[in-house]
Design goal:
By secondary structure, the protein is mainly beta. It has helices at residues 4-21, 25-36, 54-57, 61-69, 91-102, and strands at 78-80, 129-132, 137-139, 148-153, 160-168, 175-183, 198-200, 214-219, 226-227, 233-237, 242-249, 256-258, 261-266, 273-277, 288-289, 296-304, 310-317, 322-330, 336-343, 352-359, 365-372, 388-389, 400-408, 417-419. The protein contains 5 helices and 24 strands. The strands form 5 sheets. Strands 2, 5, 9, 10, 13, 14, 17, 20 and 23 form a 9-stranded mixed beta sheet that branches. A 6-stranded antiparallel beta sheet has the order 1-19-18-21-16-24, with no helix packed on it.
């Protein structure tokens, strides 16, 4: 015989079982946030809200559910390719977050919390050396600011090998993006530039070829630190090198200042191989995007010019009209392979580290194919009535890629990439190249 007491006890047990099955923040959600989100979702970083604590996170619970179900977060845009730094959440992880929100987003028992993730004074690496711009750059309240280049003297007393680097803005309000390059003593690039003085791109003092330069660290939305210990490799800073800080500033309505910096982690031993990062190649300097074109295609190309090279990293670069980007390899055998294909998101300029280093024999052609929406349908388009050419500012366009390769330590880095195909066309070409005009054999 069932009594009222029996029913109540049964209901209480059922409610208790249901409550026990609901994920809690401390036990189930916080480990996910530490692994996948806190790099950006913490004070002083790119994301507008912090996910370090329950009180920080709880107001955003419903928005988190929507973001993971629509795969808006974490930002990851690759559709073809296999990558070691894939940020895609597993279905089990998505289900846990959704169940937590649907269950009322409970905090849970404090004893279930994992140890907090630690950050080195805001760094995503633990730098052995930090190099900062020697002077503040004064950003005006209004107006267009051309790219600035600042030569920094470091006095490296011997060859230095670096396994990780991270560029950090001094003022993230005004630093749209930036990069730090190695300037070896043999290079004539900026050889007449004074140390610590900002030079506009293309101005007097910039002169000389960029021979021997190498991209050391980059900052842009969603990128984070870069690592170079791939396939037994590290990045070389030759003895006596300087560094070049290249910065794109944007005005925000009030005067601002910036002193950006780069942190380095040194290799404990000389590496077996050298990691080299292209300074934005292949690049379509002859880019032309007609006014109103909803799917303009722009193609660029380079040819690998050294033996024993392996491709390990891809970071596309476009501006506000960009839609998608693809990188293909055409091997000397005639075989063609799509290495990467994905949509473009200007707000999250992600880099993709290949799951396995990809051999690209000498003579391999790397072809980049990008598409743009220059129509009024693109809500980010600054002006759909204009024909667009290559330019530095966000209302202009670019089509380039930052490619990381591992090569022999004695490789001539000036020969790693040779401009070829459409990339040989001069600036101002009246018709941009398309894939139909590029021979894939």
């Amino acid at each position: 015989m069932f009594t009222t007491r029996t029913v109540l006890v049964g209901l209480a047990a059922a409610v208790s079982a249901m409550a026990a099955s609901v994920p809690t923040f401390n036990k189930d959600v916080l480990p996910i946030l530490e692994k996948n989100c806190q790099q950006c979702h913490r004070p002083g970083e790119l994301a507008p809200m912090s996910f370090l604590t329950y009180s920080d996170t709880r107001p955003w619970a419903k928005a988190m559910k929507d973001a993971v179900l629509t795969k808006k977060m974490p930002p990851w845009f690759a559709e073809v390719g296999h990558f070691a730094n894939d940020r895609t959440l597993s279905q089990q992880t998505i289900d846990t977050l959704v169940a937590w929100v649907d269950g009322g987003a409970p905090e849970g028992d404090a004893k279930d919390k994992p140890a907090p993730r630690t950050f080195e004074d805001g760094w995503n690496i633990k730098p052995d050396m930090i190099i900062e711009m020697p002077n503040e750059f004064h950003v005006p309240a209004t107006g267009t600011i051309n790219y600035q280049n600042i030569k920094v003297k470091v006095n490296f007393p011997e060859d230095v090998w670096v396994v990780a680097a991270e560029m950090r803005p001094g003022n993230s309000k005004v630093v749209h993006h930036g990069r730090v390059s190695v300037l070896p003593p043999t290079s004539t690039y900026m050889s007449k530039a004074a140390y610590g003085v900002p030079y506009e791109e293309g101005s007097e003092g910039m002169g000389g070829a960029k021979s021997g330069t190498d991209l050391l660290g980059k900052y842009n939305p969603g990128l984070g630190a870069q690592t170079f210990d791939v396939d037994g490799s590290a990045k070389l800073i030759p003895k006596g090198s300087d560094l070049i800080f290249n910065l794109h500033y944007t005005s925000v309505g009030t005067p601002q200042t910036d002193r950006s910096k780069v942190g380095l982690v040194f290799a404990k031993h000389p590496p077996a191989r050298r990691y080299w990062m292209s300074p934005g190649t292949p690049a379509a300097f002859n880019l032309v995007i007609p006014a109103g074109d909803r799917n303009a295609e722009v193609v660029s190309e380079v040819t690998v010019g050294v033996d024993n090279a392996k491709l390990v990293y891809i970071q596309p670069h476009m501006h506000l009209r960009g839609k998608d980007y693809e990188l293909r390899a055409v091997y000397p055998t005639g075989e063609t392979e799509t290495i990467f294909k994905g949509v473009w998101n200007f707000d999250w300029q992600v880099g993709y580290q290949l799951a396995r280093p990809l051999p690209v024999p000498k003579g391999t052609r790397l072809i980049a194919i990008a598409h743009y929406d220059n129509s009024a349908n693109n809500k980010f388009n600054p002006d759909p009535t204009k024909t667009i050419w290559w330019g530095d500012q966000n209302w202009d366009e670019m089509q380039s890629g930052f490619l990381g390769l591992v090569v022999d330590t004695n490789a001539d880095i000036d020969k790693i990439f040779i401009q070829s195909g459409p990339s040989l066309l001069p600036r101002g070409t009246t018709a941009g190249p398309t894939l139909a005009a590029v021979k894939l054999h």
